[in-house]
Structures are given as C-alpha cells and as structure tokens.
Amino acid sequence: MKSVTILGSTGSIGRQTLDIIANHPDLYKVDVLTTNSNITLLEEQCKKFKPNAVIIADNDALIRFKEGKKYKGDILSADALNTINYDANTDIVVSALVGIAGLLPTIQAIKSGKRILLANKEVLVVAGKYIMNLAKENKADIIPIDSEHSAIYQCLIGEKQKNINKIILTASGGPFFNLSSQELEQVRLSDALNHPTWYMGKKVTIDSATMMNKGFEVIEAKWLFDIDTSKIDIVIHPQSIIHSMVEFIDGSVKAQLSNPDMRFPISFALACGERNANNYEKIDFNKLKKLDFYSLPDNKFRCLDLAYNCVNKGGNACAILNAANEIAVKEFIKEKIQFTQIPIYIADALNNIAYIDSPTIDELLETDAKTRQYISNLIS
Ligand code: MG
Fold first, then answer.
1. 148 C-alpha to center of ligand 1: Å?
2. How far is the CA of 232 from the centre of ligand 1 (A)?
3. pLDDT (tens digit, 9 = 90+) per residue, 153-170?
4. How many whole angstroms separate alpha carbon 327 and alpha carbon 195?
5. Cβ neighbours of 295 (radius 10 Å)
6. Whole-angstrom Cα distance, residue 99 to residue 121?
7. Cβ distance 109 to 93 under 8 Å?
8. How many Å lie between the centroid of ligand 1 and the Cα of residue 3?
9. CA 37 to ligand 1 centroid distance, Å
10. Which one, of 284, 246, 282, lies nearest residue 267 by Cα?
11. Any idea what DSSP says for residue 56?
C-alpha cells in the first residue's frame, strides 16, 4: 500500500490522479490533499478519500472550510506547502500545483527523498539544473507525468545513456500549424483556445498554440534525461497517439503509444516499476489505420526558438522566458495584446532583465517577480 500526497488535488491532474487511486483502493491511499481555493471539491475529496491533512492556500477559503466543520483531520494554511514534513506518512508526492508556486513545495518534497510525480512545468523549466542535482543528493526519484516525458521515460527503461542517439518529441502542432505568418496575425482568442486533441486549461492551450509548451518540454527533457538540446528533435504528429520516441545509436527507434488520455501517464507514474490494469479506452488499430507526421515549419513558431535560445544560454534565462510568457499569455487571454505579440514581449524581457550566470533559488524567484512586473508595466 502506497500513500500519496497530491499538491493541487482539485486541478485537472489532481482529479485524474484521485480517479486512478479510487480504482485501486488496495494499492493506494491518500495522505495530504491541497487546493488553492476550491473547497467545495476539496470537501467531496475529503469525504471520499479521508486524507490525514489538507492544505488550503487561499486564506478566505481556509477560514470558510474551517467554519464548515465537516472535515475532522488537520487543516493547514499555505506556509505548510513549503514546510510540511513528509517523512512519516507519504511515499509518493504528486507535484501538480500550477505555476511558479509549485517550485518551493516540490523542493521540500525532493528534500524528503520521496518519489516525485512531476506535472508542474515551472519546476524544471525555471530551476532544472538545481532540481536534478537536489534529487540526486536526496535520492528522490522524479517520474514525469507529462505525456511526452512519460513516453521517453518508458522508452529508456533498460537502456544505457550512451546509446541514445536522439529524443524525438511529438507535437500535435496545435490549431495553427497550417496557418501562414500573415494568418497568424489575425488569430483570435477563441481560435487559440480550440485545441485539436487534448483538453487542457486556457494557459496550456495557448502555450500549445504558440508552441511555447513544446519549448518548455524541450527544456524539461534536457534536464530529466541529461541530454543536450542538439539531440532533441520535434516532429508534428497531429493524432497525439505516439507520445514521443527515442532513437538509439544502432538506428532502432522506440516509441510509446496510447490514446490521448492523461490517466495513462499518471497510472504509469503511480505504478512505476509495475503496471496496473485499467479500463480506459485502448488503441483500436483497425479504426486508427494511419499515423501522420509533418516536419516543423522553420521560423514560424518564435516562442519555440526563444525556448531553445534560453535553455542553451542557461543561468536565469529560462526563468525570464517562463515569467514573461505567463504574463503575455494572460494579457492575450484578456484580449489586451495580439497572438503574435506574445514572443515580442518575451524577447523584450530577455533583452532587459539582468542575466545571472549561476542563480540561486532566491535569485530565480526574484528574476521571476521582476520579469512579471516588467512585462505588466510594459503592456499597461
Ligand atoms: Mg505535453
């Protein structure tokens, strides 16, 4: 029986993780659940999964939850995310908080040497080098939940690092892969929110449309698999059935396939080393018939180029990239800026926020705050 803490249990990944846990009451139980402010759903989750403690980050929500008096375990405030002691009750920590807020809580979990199921992107995008060193020091396994990295992880089981020729990340291409540069200028918010294969939150959906999401995945893959970005290729695969591939020095390629359903990579990460049966819809090759591939158009997705530049530059560049992107996307969602202005604002931040070669975690967080302020001022 493994005990699971879910940082961000009311978000999409958190809910799907609990779905899987509910299907395997003999294998998993819940230790701690956390939410920002969705106490209605948290209350339902408490009733069903009986966690030992909950953490509620938003103070008003915390007070209302306490007043409700329906949950009998420990009710903790936001500070607990960064100070919680995992040693006693938790085997697995699912890191599914949204945004930079996930960084310090994930560091806390890594320091306790737990198995980390990583869904939060910022952890590796902003602080990849630090995080992977910390995980090594504390013997904490980091198992990715993102479908692409889960695929690569699965392809690399039993393989030697020196035999990897390259990693091939698949990308659905998003809704705009066929548009010309001129057409991209005219893109509206509703077009960008219309992702062809995956259902996701607004921010990630826009990041898929700009391909920044794929850029972040390149950065994450570099750190997770200790591989140079020159050995990470991207191929457009609109059906999102092959989640990524690894080519080895003998020319053999391994791929991992499943229907596009996040419960597959989450199940794999929870079981890690084992495989748990489930009833999620499996691939029917007779219906599927074909898989398509297209090469990535040159110079069309500026956000992707920026991501490659930043990860190769190192230091705090990816922290600037991430923060500037987040604010620019937020402003696009508010319809304050155009789709094609997103990379222009990011490039501006990269030119104007001070570069730090070997930043500490505090310096990365400072870079993050400064960049947000800078872009917000610039846009308003
Ligand atoms: Mg992905």
1. 5
2. 15
3. 999 999 999 999 999 999
4. 21
5. 9
6. 7
7. yes
8. 26
9. 26
10. 282
11. E
